[in-house]
Amino acid sequence: MNLLSKIAMALIPCLMAACGGGGSNPDTEPQNTSADPVDKYVGQWVRNCEVMFSPAVNASYPDGLSELEDLTIGKINASEYGTTSIETKYPGTTCTGEAISQATTLGAAQILGTKTVAFGVVDKVTIVRNGVALKLISQVADEGLA
Questions:
Q1: Is 112 part of any domain?
Q2: Has residue 59 been placed in a domain?
Q3: How many other C-beta atoms are found inside a 10 Å radius of the C-beta of residue 83?
Q4: Residue 8: what are its φ and ψ, rounded to 5°?
Q5: Cβ neighbour number for residue 98 with a 10 Å cutoff
Q6: DSSP-assigned states of every residue in 33-58
Q7: pLDDT, tens digit, for every residue of 40-96?
Q8: Could you give the CA distance from residue 112 to residue 54 in angstroms, rounded to a whole number?
Q9: Is 115 exposed, middle or buried (0-12, 13-18, 19+ CB in 10 A)?
């Protein structure tokens, strides 16, 4: 998986939490009603267990490999936030037992404004992680989504 793909995958919990999508634990999603554009992102999200390799697919992990991600987002100012992503890998496919590795990645993002698209209003965001910038959109209203 290339670096931009990994960055995008690491940010999915943040983006999905912002649009009310799945992939995060509702008990850990903050309910923020402040007026600043970044406030809806601030908080902590835990991505559900993700299977990286099924058993017998990779010789290095005969029982499979799974990963949990804990994403913390902190407000810098009204339009910028910082991120700390902790990815913990486990043997097997259930994210249980003793972790075999843990990696922490720091990042930052800036909300550049909003844009109306076919499925609603979105934030235009530039995210920088490990020196790589990624421009994307994040939904801020669930208009028209089931």
A1: no
A2: yes
A3: 20
A4: -60, -45
A5: 6
A6: --SSGGGGT-EEEEEEEEEEE-TTTB
A7: 889 998 989 999 999 988 888 889 999 999 999 999 999 999 999 999 999 999 999
A8: 40
A9: exposed
β strands within 4-141, DSSP E: 43-53, 65-77, 80-91, 101-117, 120-129, 132-139
User: Which structural domain range is residue 93 located in?
Assistant: 3-107
Whole-number Cα distances in Å, 124 to 14, 35, 105, 121, 135: 14, 17, 22, 10, 8
| 8 occurs within a structural domain | yes
* DSSP code of residue 61: B
> Within its chain, how far is the Cα of 22 from the centroid?
11
CA-to-CA distance for 103 and 76, rounded, in angstroms? 23
For residue 97, the tally of other CB atoms under 10 A from its CB is 11
Domain count, the chain: 1
Q: Are strands 80-91 and 132-139 parallel, antiparallel or unpaired?
A: unpaired
Give the tens place of pLDDT for each residue, 105-116: 999 999 999 999
The Cα 62–Cα 46 span in angstroms is 26
Three-state DSSP class for residue 24: strand
Whether the predicted model's global pTM rises above the 0.85 cut: no
- 15 three-state secondary structure: helix
